[in-house]
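Records of this kind hold a single protein each, on a pair of labelled lines. With that in mind, the following record should read easily:
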Amino acid sequence: MNVLRNVCLGVLVLAAGAVRGQTNGAMPAVVLDRVAAYVNEHAVTVSDVLQVIQPVQRQLMARYGGEELKARLGDAYRAGLESLIARKLILEAAEAENLQLPDWVVENRVTEIIADQFEGDRMALMDALARDRLTYDEWRDEIRQHLVVQYMRAMHVDQKVSVGPLDVRRAYEENLEAYRTPAQVKVRTIMLSKGDTAEAAAGSLEKARRVLERIAAGEDFAMVARDISEGPAAGEGGERDWMAPEYLHSALAEAAERLAPGEVSGVIETDRNLYVLKLEGRKEASVQPFAAVQPEIEARVRAEKSEALYDAWIDRLRQQAYVKVVVEDPF
């Protein structure tokens, strides 16, 4: 199923996908016309679940095969099944509460979809419905159900989420490491291989001394690096990205620690190479201030609380209903 089903099932954990019964590539064979679960007197079929997980199915099939693919498809199937069971429970709860959406609410949403997805062309919508073997009334009812689910979640979950200043501050302090930026340095290096013999090493050392003389005489470090360096960053003038000192070779990190920005080291020797290093800049370790990350943290805390309230709500609805899973994994 295409965008029409996506619109109707957008509230679910996974978006809706292909035409009923269609499979792709090396999709493991499954029987589509079995009941996957019962929710009171309503049935959820295996094909209903496969519609929901079809986009995820395509991604998984592109990355995995064999038993790994089957296992991951099984996980996706179970998540899709749970989302459909939750949807049935919510719709039944709405019916028990005698929730009635005004027709104009549904019609406004239909008009928005036609404008957004079909450039305002109602006939294009009708053609798409015909390809999907849906009547307009069936599709419009799915839109209504989607809106009902949205409204019920807003009323029973979203409106009950409360995030206070203390919640946000506590989340910041409990996750302080996530907002900590370690000390960083930015360097340029000129690298010369020591070679495999003592003579080659002596030659490289003499070459490194001449590099220092050229820089001391006023030549630009980056230009000398492009001319002389044998390192991978030679084309960039020896420039390296900002990094924590521990990501440098220990000898380079020690040299950088002794330099002020703009200063150049002497010859630095490692097991295989010789270096000349210039410290371009230094950033001290810091922690992002609370005010800078407060909106991000508040949104995360709100989302976490909303998810917890939603799960608890669905659990209550499930306990009050008859739910039986028949097919836990069709693959």
User: Anything to note?
Assistant: The mean pLDDT is 90.
